[in-house]
Amino acid sequence: MHFFSRVLILASLSLMFLLWWSYLLLRPTPQGQGDLIIEDRQVDSSLTFDTLLHIQQVRKKKLRSFCHKNRKIVMLPPTQQEASQVLSSIAVNHKLHFLYCKLPATGVEDWEELLEMLGEEEGGTLLMPIPYHQQFGNQKALSEYNLTSMEAMLKSYTKVIFIREPFQRLLSAFMHDLTSRLTFHEFIQYILYSGSRNDSIEWAPLVNLCHPCLVQYDYIMMFGFLGNEVHHLMLRTGLPEHFQIPEFIDSKVQWTYSWLEEKMLSKLTLMEKKELCHFFRSDFAAFHFPSSFLWDHTCIPGSS
C-alpha cells in the first residue's frame, strides 16, 4: 500500500511536469523571443542586477530582523568541537572562494554542478576580492578546519544559502524514499513526534542547520528562481561572459510542488498542520516564501 502511494505521487508529479512542458512548447511567443522562455539571461542585465540587489536587500533585512528578535547563535562557539558542530552543514569551495550551506532539495545540487564545471575551466577562478591570501588546505567542509581558519573564511569568502518552502522540503524527502516503510501521514507524525531529537538535514528547519544569524550570508537564493538569481550572482562575482551556466530545473517543478503541497496537506488534521507551523516557525519568521499553502492557510493567525 505504501509503495502504491508513492507511485501515485510520482506519477502525478510526472504528469504535471509534462503538461507544463507541453504548455511551454506550444504557447505562442513573439518572433525571435522563444529562447526567453528558458534562457532568462537574455533579459536586460542592468535592470536584472538592480532587481537582484533589491531582492537580496529585502531578504537580508527580514533575516536581520529575525536575528535581532530571537536568541540565535550569532558568534562562533569558543571550542573546536562546538564550532565544528554548528558549522557542520557549511561546504567550502576554495578555488572560487565560496562557502554555502549544503542541504538537499534546495537547489544546491545544481549549484555544486556549476561550481565543478567552473573549477574545471582553465583560469576559471572568479575575480572576487579576497582581503588576504592564505592556504587553507583542501577540505570541503568548514567544520574540518581549526577555529582560526573558520573565522578567516567566514570573513573573506562569499557566503550563499539556498532556501525552500519547508513543507515542500518534507515532500521531497518523503518522495525520495527516505522513509519507505511509512505512509505520508505516518511520516509527518514521525517528524512531529521526534522533533529536535531527529534533526535530519532532509527536513530540519533551515535556521537550525545553516545558522544565518552567525554566518552573514552575502546571498539568499530562493528555490523556484535559481536560474535567474544564480546567473546574475555569478556575473557579479566575476564569471567569464562566455561561460554557459547549466539550466536549473527548480522553476519547472516549483508550481507542481505547490499543487502537491495543497493535496498532501488536505490529508492532515488541523492540529497536525498547526504543529508543522510550530515546527517550522523559525524558517517562516526568518524568510519570506512567496508560495506556501501551509503558511497562507494555517500558520497566519486567523487563517484557519
The number of strands is 4
Average pLDDT value? 79
Structural class: mainly alpha
Question: What number of domains?
Answer: 1
Note the gap between the termini: 31 Å
Name the helicity range: 40-55%
Strand content: 5-15%
How would you describe this protein?
- There is one protein chain.
- With 304 residues, this protein is mainly alpha-helical.
- It has one domain (43-128, 136-299).
- It is built from 13 helices and four strands.
- Strands 1-2-3-4 form a four-stranded mixed sheet.
- Helix 2 (45-69) crosses helix 9 and helix 11 crosses helix 13 (293-299).
- It is globular, with a radius of gyration of 20 Å.
- 28% of the residues are buried.
How would you sum up this structure in a few lines?
The protein has about 300 residues and is mostly helical.
